[in-house]
Amino acid sequence: MTTHPAETIGRDRFAFGDNWLKFIELMDERRIEQAMGSLTTALGIEDLSGRSFLDVGCGSGLFSLAARRLGARVHSFDYDPDSVSACSRLRDQFGPRSDWTVEQGSILDESYLAGLGSFDIVYSWGVLHHTGDMWRAIGTASALTEPGGSLFISIYNDQGLASRVWWRIKRRYVQGGPLTRKGLVLAGKTYFRTRTTVANMAKRTFGESVPGGVRGRGMSKGHDLVDWIGGFPFEVASPEQIFRFLHGRGFQLRFLKTCRGGLGCNEFVFTAPHRGQA
């Protein structure tokens, strides 16, 4: 078992893996196809055959599965044993088992990472800001990217005061008992439902389409809600901070999708520098 002190599961850490084990019960081909579409849109590649894909903090394993379906050789790892179990179950049920490794490991564990090598695509969506050492985790993930390869990450947007409020809510969740957690999830559900209702009314007024129950990345609103309310440790960054950090290491931004200054994750795809360029 590979762990790191900053990622030890305990009183101040959300049980991400437990949530993912529940999510995979909803898995179907529609979600898998949406996850595949999310990857190809951001990467600008329709076929990953012949490419290696590292899923850092694989969670449910949905995007590892999507990459495997697109032809990549996949290596998935997560610090949470329940996440490892969820990913392994998803592989056994839906994916070709060849060229897909699932392990327990931490992006902060140098001894574990030393044996991985480098990958054509390093993918980490909504993970590195939950490690307890976000900037180190981003730097380490970038170092695993093959020269000329793609680093695909998403990081919570810095909303200033609102982010500090959410930090306190999340910490209260992980430190609270069952009743406290249920109450926070219910309050969050009411809050987001009200926001969504108002936003959908505005969209209909201006003739815009309203999204259905399956999210654009194939995820689940209910499980994403629990993940959001309880997701601690919790760090944030502005798009400019991410760009400066990786640009200073020679990475070039190729794809950017922001949450327009609001709540959620900003998505980035960077191209790693060729040797001698960093």
Task: Report the uncertain regions.
Answer: none
Widest sheet: strand order? 3-2-1-4-5-7-6
Overall, the morphology is globular
What percentage of amino acids are in beta strands? 15-25%
Tell me the structural class. Answer: alpha/beta
Note the total helix count: 10
The biggest beta sheet is recorded as: 7 strands, mixed
The helix-strand sequence is HHEHEHEHEHEHHHHEE
Radius of gyration: 18 Å
Helix % is: 40-55%
The span between the termini is 34 Å
Average pLDDT, to the nearest integer?
91
Number of strands: 7
Question: What can you see in these coordinates?
Answer:
The chain is of the alpha/beta class and 278 residues long. It has ten helices and seven strands. It has helices at 16-23, 29-43, 62-69, 81-94, 110-113, 134-143, 161-175, 178-205, 221-230, 239-247; strands at 52-56, 73-78, 100-104, 119-125, 145-156, 252-257, 265-271. The chain has a seven-stranded mixed beta sheet with strand order 3-2-1-4-5-7-6, with helices on both faces. Helix 1 packs parallel to helix 4. 39% of the residues are buried. The model has no long low-confidence stretch (mean pLDDT 91).
